[in-house]
Amino acid sequence: MKIAFLPVSLVFSATALAASVPAFAQSAPQTILIGLAAPLTGPSARIGKDLQNGAQLAIDDANAKHPSIGGKPVVYKLVAADDQSDPRTAVAVAQQLVDQHVIGVVGHWNTGCSVPASRVYRDAGIPQIAPASTGHQYTQQGYATAFRIMGHDDAGGNFTGAYAVKTLKAKRIAVIDDRTSFGAGLADQFVKGVQANGGVIVDRQYVNDKTTDFSGVLTAIKGKRADLVFFGGLDAQAAPIARRMRQLGVNAPLLGAGGFVSQTFLSLAGKDGDGVTALEPGLPLGRMPGGKAFDTQYQARYRAPIELHAPFAYDAAATLIAAAQKAGTTQPAKLVAAVRAIDRPGVTGRIAFDGEGNLKDPAFTIYQVRGGKWTVVDVLGGSRTVAK
Predict the structure, then answer these.
(1) Three-class DSSP category at 60
(2) Is the pTM of this model over 0.90?
(3) Cβ(203)–Cβ(237) under 8 Å?
């Protein structure tokens, strides 16, 4: 009987191959999904895309470091969903993201979407970090899963009210709000800030977030001889308000507090935007600790300037990733606890949350349009280091 022998080299190769298969299989990274909910279509699409771009940069930076969770390699992937800035759509989008098993969500952009969507995330037990929803009510619901990466409107409205009276010396102030939870809430806090500083509200007018003709409300305000007009609403409507004020001869400055300071406003308002003043949560980009480097990275990647909130979306996504790395798991309860305990330096400044989920010690910046550009006038609040 003949006994066949395999060549030693072939036996060694086969053995090595067999041994290598399990190791190769184990080294394949697990994909971890992070949701992004924002308006990707409609009048606010440019801001939604800006948020998506910022979050994607955080994902890319994390993946470049070959991350692992619990000793196992992972790769992060952003799942973007369009909420159209519509509350009902936002709820549907939130459920879609939950059904796709995202570990957390960067979103939504506006408070009117974040509030109803937050219930879906609460029920699923996953963290939601809003990059720009400033309505205080979002974090006043008692949900352990709700966080925000910038200051809220109670503080912003109070700062703006005080600024209108003490710095701009306004004596007869008119208010317009868009009746959304964001705009109305902001206007309410502004009125409180004005009254607390001895100012007088001579008129309050109402529109909705679809209004395009502001002639009626501005004519009424002109009749009240207002020397300052505050608008609680967003850039896409603030720009036509500024234009119509000029056309009607309303000789009063336009003031806003959140949602004005964007390229969209400048494009829509044109020369009629000059002199418009607005408060925006956060430090100006050039004074954020990581702002200049982020701006360079963003423009190199997307060949376009930052629209508004991309750095905050970056920090929101990076915070979810940092929490997962710290927790060593994506198990929802442990991940939420890790987000709540986070204290880390971000592009926009220190990232740490209070008991409600609000950013601790937030800063606000006053901007004014000068020569067709948003120019920093003052920085209020906060104690974060300002990069020179």
Answers:
(1) helix
(2) no
(3) no
